[in-house]
Amino acid sequence: xxxxxxxxxxxxxxxxxxxxxxxxxxxxxxxxxxxxxxxxxxxxxxxxxxxxxxxxxxxxxxxxxxxxxxxxxxxxxxxxxxxxxxxxxxxxxxxxxxxxxxxxxxxxxxxxxxxxxxxxxxxxxxxxxxxxxxxxxxxxxxxxxxxxxxxxxxxxxxxxxxxxxxxxxxxxxxxxxxxxxxxxxxxx
Length: 188
Description:
40% helix, NADH Oxidase, alpha+beta, oxidoreductase activity, 4-stranded antiparallel beta sheet, Nitroreductase domain-containing protein
């Protein structure tokens, strides 16, 4: 190329590294089948615990369901979606409706004006707290899906279940609201 040339050479995609390369590669195995053992949900709990949250809270609870009879009942409550009974494990993400975050901060943490601003902001946010909590469960769901991809474990997110039936099947206390589910692993 001469000095007057306007052609700019860019490296081909294969010559460069994209941050999404690894994630995309892990997602492309989806048609394989891999059974999980019962230690995998424990592995996923590490990813979930390491999700960053506002004010350091974890506003949800996750249940791992392995029992075939319970999975069959859940399938009926979720409009007979087939993934529920052919999976190895179901992770059920329940938002907590009893969340009350602390708005009082130690003096050493921040100045009075900052504490006051945070407290005022938080008080104005309180009416929408459950919406925020539900969104946090979906963030955790995303982390578990990524962890499954890293381990080449098939998973399938499920939404649209009868919340009251699911709560009854799991005998949940009233402050835990089933928000999302993830079927994990191949059938036995």
